[in-house]
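This follows on from our talk about sequence and fold. I would like you to pick a protein and set down its sequence and fold. Go ahead and set the record down below:
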Amino acid sequence: MCHRRSLRGELAPIEQLPLAPTGSERWQSFIREDRARSLIDRQLAECGWAVQLRDRMNLGAALGVAVREFATGSGPVDYALFVGRTLCGVVEAEAEGTTQSTASRSN
């Protein structure tokens, strides 16, 4: 059975993951959130942050390091922001137009 990593890092059977657009609201939300992450990646890099994947994390690569899909004690976050190797904040990617209260209800 083929497996692929889900957004939260655990293995999921490939049959359970959306492989092609289905027109469903959930799939469209995933696409919008992925676009938001791409924009956030660019914006963080333009501001001087070193954007890294969790499995290739190197907190010494720059003064400011943004780690994607980082696991915290209270659950995974889209970005963990480290300054001088110290966790100083997190960023949650949401689709453009999503309000904070809407995002809280859906997560």
Remarks:
- Confidence is low (pLDDT under 50) at residues 1-19.
- The longest helix spans residues 25-46.
- Strands lie at 3-5, 11-13, 50-53, 64-72, 75-83, 86-91.
